[in-house]
Prior knowledge:
The complex is a heterodimer of chains A (113) and B (112).
Chain A lengths: L4 E3 L2 E4 L5 E6 L6 E7 L6 E7 L2 E5 L6 E5 L5 E5 L8 E8 L8 E2 L3 E5 L1
Chain B lengths: L3 E3 L4 E4 L4 E7 L7 E6 L6 E6 L3 E5 L2 E6 L4 E6 L8 E7 L9 E2 L3 E6 L1
Parallel strand pairs in B: 2-11
Antiparallel strand pairs in B: 1-3, 3-8, 4-5, 4-9, 6-7, 7-8, 9-10, 9-11
Amino acid sequence: ETGVTQSPTHLIKTRGQQVTLRCSSQSGHNTVSWYQQALGQGPQFIFQYYREEENGRGNFPPRFSGLQFPNYSSELNVNALELDDSALYLCASSSPNRDSGYTFGSGTRLTVV
Amino acid sequence: QKEVEQDPGPLSVPEGAIVSLNCTYSNSAFQYFMWYRQYSRKGPELLMYTYSSGNKEDGRFTAQVDKSSKYISLFIRDSQPSDSATYLCAIPGPTNAGKSTFGDGTTLTVKP
């Protein structure tokens, strides 16, 4: 069983609303990355947090924001939801070692109607 | 042009077949390559990573990199129904694996 847990597993929101997704990292991992995976596509990097600071951002607008807490858990917030935000949102924790890869959670399926 | 392009599939093979999954990448500076497997309704899980040209073997899985062609492949020998999943190639970010660029995946079905 994966050490990364995400909540909720499914969510339905209305266009224009705001949403908060949560991620609990694997023990010992101080780096958290968030990805958006649209249906039939690969994950796209949103941003990464390292020791509570943003440590890189992909090509996503500012209405996508995040937080990392001292226990290395993390949140992804999306404001002013759009229909195209419907996707699987994945959280992945890793050590800073490039060779370690990630441990992904099972994701939150967000549907915007 | 996308940084990583993956053969779209889907791919359907009989049990026991050898499977070849392929990606091309655009930037010759890339040195690390990863393969992930994603089961339905799950997050990706790291299968293999490779750093250099040539082959890397792990059980029934072999990752191959051809830097001259900017081509990476994953071979699965003696494929099993449990191998049915989407396979994603990925290029790690320049500083750590947390900022990777993924291909769009190839969905594989292994029929008993």
